Amino acid sequence: MTEATAELLIRAAAVHTLVPGDPPHRAIAVAGGRITALSPAPDGLDTLIGPDTEVVDALDSTVLPAFDDTHAHLVLAALSVHGVPVHRARDLPGFLALIRERAARTPAGKWIHTTVNWQEVLLAEQRMPTIAELDAATAAHPVLVRRGAYNMVLNSAALRLAGITGTTEAPPGGVIERDEHGRLTGRLVNRAVELVERVLPRPTPAERIEGLRAASAAFAATGIGTVRDCLVPVEDLGVLDAARAEGALAVRVRALVSGFAVRTPEQVDALLDRMDGWREAGRDDNGLRLWGVKFGIDGGFEAGALEEPYQGRPCYHGRLLWEPAELLAAVDRVVGRGWRVGVHAWGDRGLRVLLDVFEQVSERRPGLPPGTLVVEHGGLARPAQRARAVALGVPVTVQHPLLHDGALAQRRAWGEERTAALFPLREWLDEGALLTGGSDFPVGPYGAMVSVWGMTTRGTVAGVVGPEHAIGRAEAVALHTVNAARLTGESAARGSLRPGALADLTVWPLDPLVCPADALRDLLPTRTIVGGLTTHLS
Predict the structure, then answer these.
(1) Which end of the chain is more exposed for a tag (fewer CB within 10 A), N or C?
(2) Nearest-angstrom CA–CA distance, 304 and 419
(3) CATH number for 442
(4) Which domain covers residue 365, as residue numbers?
(5) pLDDT in tens, 167-206
């Protein structure tokens, strides 16, 4: 090929570049993994066609940048991709039947685990399975039922293997649930899940890579080109590296190393030493980059820290997982080494305390690069807190799919007013925040357009929630593209379509900016392209 020849040329009804003031184009050319030219005419780049050029005539389709999911858990998705598919169940008998079916073809004594992307409130019974029900499904296998990253239910065999008895104390920030008689229910919450994770058999490296191949391809099939994975165990960086080397990653990955297991200054330093080793080895590239460290200040749906008590629980305000002074010391150590920090905060008290920490870090270390400190979720963000975050220049990642699937559970815990106030997108944008979009999969479903649909309609499993906080479609698309690239510091290379930018594109059968709302939710791309390579084709 000559320098002027395109490797890929797409003719479309509209190419939305997302460059301010740039009208839609009709053709786009790619070579060497980058965009080389755009034209307002569908045949305007035909001179770039050579004998090996792939020409895509999609004259009824729309081209957009590939989307970022700025808060998801790809590694966790890869670990559960072959789990019992309980997310398909609609009631507990069906849920338990799937486990029983897997047990019938699994050697006795071998662990059985489920997929993680399900919600008990979406089952007919609207509850988790009990330990007795799991024991009835199989007593010959340890069973791990996991929902999201921080909730598990175990059968008796699994509890025994984890060494959890009626007298076991939960680690700080964790819960080992007991019933009114003090008996184990089998449920573990937040840091208590670590008691099980340390005894789980590890998949082989080949199994891990194949899990990442399948999970990343599934993200790409929804229009996602980059995943910011917000809970990567530091030892799993090697797995991601191996997957990259084998060409198994269908998306770019920006990894936040999990800081949930570190508490002391020595533990933080040990984690950072391993991260520094990655940086010093020069292992970052456009496909896989180590972004920073992820902490969590409160407990999410079940334990988000609130200023006012939970619904029907006058003495319960949720949980702070850190003493503020300890979190301040940890965050300060991380940024002092030149890394960035994202901190989960779901309730308004958690967010207030987190902003106190961020303010003190900013005072200690003036001149921190933009985007060094990031609020993950910021779910219940009150006006004063939003003003503080904007004044600090702190970006915020939001995830409407998390609200979509969790609205019923959150309404039970917090009531209608506080649930409707979650993710005040309209206010954040109007007040000048850098806001980016994601899913928080497995708590919410991933997908470019399911997120755009949710942010523009505020639709959830509980109906429309907080419609006054909705934003427009162009704004929602920007949260996953232009704004996402700003968050990761890659605006010069990604986020919009212009000559010289990385060729990360999506092709859609309808124009997401103007198609009917009822078509938007389930809209999938016909093609996803990352670095000029097609990672999904339907």
Answers:
(1) C
(2) 12
(3) 3.20.20.140
(4) 205-492
(5) 999 998 889 999 999 999 999 998 899 999 899 998 999 9
